[in-house]
Amino acid sequence: MKRIEKKLKELSQDNQKAFVGYIVAGDPDLKTSLELMHLSVDSGVDILEIGVPFTDPIAEGPTIQQAHDRSLENQTNLQKIVDLVGKFREKDSNTPIILMGYINNFLIYKDLINRSHDLGVDGVLVVDIPGELSLEDYGIDNQDLDVISLVSPTTSKDRVKEIVKNSTGFIYYVTLRGVTGSSNLDGNEIEQNIKYIKSISSIPVMAGFGIKNSDDAKLLSSFSDGIVIGSSIVELIYKNSENKDFHEVSDYISTMKNAIR
Amino acid sequence: MKDNLPDKDGFFGEYGGKFVPETLMYALNELEQTYKTLKDNNDFNAEFHKDLAEFVGRPSPLYFAKRLTEHYNTASIWLKREDLNHTGAHKINNTVGQILLAKYMGKKRIIAETGAGQHGVATATVAARLGLDCHIYMGSEDVRRQSLNVYRMKLLGAEVHEVNSGSATLKDALNEALRDWVTNIEDTYYIIGSVTGPHPYPMIVRDFNAVVGYELIDQSQESFGRMPDSIIACVGGGSNAMGIFYPFIKMDNVELIGVEAAGKGIETGEHAAPLNDGTPGVLHGAKSYLMQDESGQVKGTASISAGLDYPGVGPEHSWLKDIKRAKYVAVSDDEVMKAFHMVNKMEGILPALETAHAFAYLDELMPKMNEDQHIVINVSGRGDKDLNSVVEIEDIKL
Ligand SMILES: Cc1ncc(COP(=O)(O)O)c(C=O)c1O
After folding, report:
1. Is the distance from CB of B66 to CB of B97 less than 8 angstroms?
2. Are B185 and A154 inside 8 Å of each other by CB?
3. Of B179, B205, B231, which residue constitutes the final position of a domain?
4. Whole-complex ipTM
5. Which of B43, B4, B6, B51 shows the shortest CA–CA distance to B211?
6. Domains in chain A, start-ordered, CATH in brackets?
7. What is the pLDDT of residues B252-311, one digit of tens each?
8. How many folded domains does chain B comprise?
9. Which residues line ligand 1 at a C-beta cut-off of 6 Å?
10. Do B28 and B169 share a structural domain?
11. Is the pTM above the cut of 0.80?
C-alpha cells in the first residue's frame, strides 16, 4: 500500500483527522529543514508537504513568497530537495512526503521526479497545472507517485469530476478565494463543496489555505479528512531562524493537532 | 500556413496553454466562453470599431519616412503610426476591446499590470470612461523610471500599487496582478497588457491589436500598390508585433522581424531577449521561450526600456520562431539610444524607447535591401514618457 493511503487509513481507523504541514525546503537552510521535518512529525504532523521554491510563485501570499526567496538565495533546487528527502528517510520511513511546487521546476527535473519515489517521495502537487490535465502528458508518469490535485470554491461540478478522476492520494480543497495566508474562510461553502466531492468519490479530502488558529482547524476538520497548514508554520520558522530555537513551531503544531483530535 | 491557432486548449504548437492555479480556471473559462460568443457578434464589433475610430483615432496613418529612406538609400521605409493613438501607444487597442468584454460580463473592478506604464495608462483611461474601479500593479523600479505615467494613471482615477517583490519590474507586477485576481475572482476583470499569460489572453490581445495589421494591408495597397517586403516591430511580451504580424502570417513573401532587447549585450547575459537566448518553460500561465537558469528559476532581465524588460514572451511568437515564419533579432541599449536620436532628428518623431528597438535594427537590415522594396516599422508608441529616463541615461542637466 502506498504511504499516503496507509497513513490516512491508520488515522481514520483511529477516528483521527490528518494534519498536513507545509514548510519550504531550504528556509532558512537545508540542514535546518531536515531538523524541522523531524520536529514537525514529532509534534503532530502526519503528512509533510515540502515546498519547492520558485522565483514566481503566483499562488502564494507574502509569507510563503518570502520563504521561497530566502530559500533561493541558498541555491535550493529540486535535486537538493530530493536529497533532503533521502536524508529524512534514514530516520523516518512512515511519514508521507509530498513535493509541492510549480510546473516549470518539475519539467526541468522530470527524470529525477520520475525516479523520486524510489528516493522516498510519495506524491507531487503541482500548483499551476489544471487538475483535469494529467501530468503524464508532461512526462511525469511514475505510477507509484501520488498526484495530488487542487479543487477550489470556483471549480465547476463538471470539472470536479474530471479532477477527481486524475487524482490519487487525496484532494486538496482550497478553502478560499485567494493566495496562501489569506483569511476569509466561509464555513458553509466549504462544507457544501467538500460534501459534493465526497458524494462522487471515496478519495480523502484535505482542507487548506487560510487556516490560522485552533478554531479554524476544528471547524474545517469537522467536514474534511484533515487540514493543511502552511503560512503560519512558515512564519514561525522565519521568526525563530536567527537563534534556531523552534519550540514555538512545535508548540503551534501540537496545539493544532489537539484541536483536530 | 496556419493562422487559425490557438487550438481548443489554447496551444500554438507546443506553446501556450493554461498553467494556472485552480481558482483561476473558472475565470479563464468564463472569459473564453464570453469571447467566443462576442467575437462574431455584430453589435460588439460595431461598438469596438466605433471606439477605435472616435476615441482612439484610428486608422493610424502609414507614413513615408523620406529622410530615413534617403539616409539608408535602399528600400522605402514606411512608419505605421501607433504613436499617434490616444494615450500614445498601440496598447489602447487592446484595452478598448477588453473593457468591452468586462462590460458585457458585468465586471465592476478592473486590474492590470504595467511595465512602461503605457498599458496602465491605457487601462486607467478606458476604466475612467466607464466609471469602473481600477487598480494597476507596477514594479517599484518601473514606478521610478516611468513616474510621469504613474501620475497620469492617478489623474485618471486609478490606484497604483507598487510591487517590491522579486526584481520589482514587469514580471513581478504580473505575479501580483494574478494574486489579486485569485483573491477577487468573481467581480474583477483582469486586462492583461500583452499577448502573454494563460489562454485565452494571447489570442484575445492579438485579435484586438490585429486591427493594426489589417489597416496596413489596405494602406500598403494604396501607398505602394502591393504588400510590404518586411515588417519590423519590437517585442516585449509581443502585442504590437503580433498585432501587425498576424494578418500577414499566411502571406509567405512578407518577412516578419521581431526585435528584442539585447540590453547590455546578449553575450553578457544581461538582456531581455528570451527568443534569442532562452529555452522553453512555463511562466505566468503559458509555455513559451523563457529566460531561466538550469534549475528552472526565472532569471533577472536588463533593458533601458521598461516595456521590454520581461523574461518571457507571448507563446505565438515562440511558435512563429520554431516554424521559422518570423525572425527574431536583438539590439543593445547603445544601439537603441543611437536610433532614438536618429528618428528624432531625421523624422521629427519622438519614439518610445521600446519602439526605438525596431528602428535600431535598420542599420543591419537596410544594406541588404534594394531600392524596389518596401519595409514597414510599427511605431508602437511615442517617447514622451521616456524623457526622464533619457535625461538620466545621458546624464543631462535640464
Ligand atoms: C510603446 C511600447 N511599445 C512596445 C511595448 C512592448 O509590449 P509589446 O511587446 O506587448 O508590444 C510597450 C510596453 O509597454 C510599449 O509601451
Report:
1. no
2. yes
3. B205
4. 0.95
5. B51
6. 3-256 (3.20.20.70)
7. 999 999 999 999 999 999 999 999 999 999 999 999 999 999 999 999 999 999 999 999
8. 2
9. B 89, 91, 115-116, 118-119, 194, 234-241, 307-308, 352, 354-355, 380-381
10. yes
11. yes
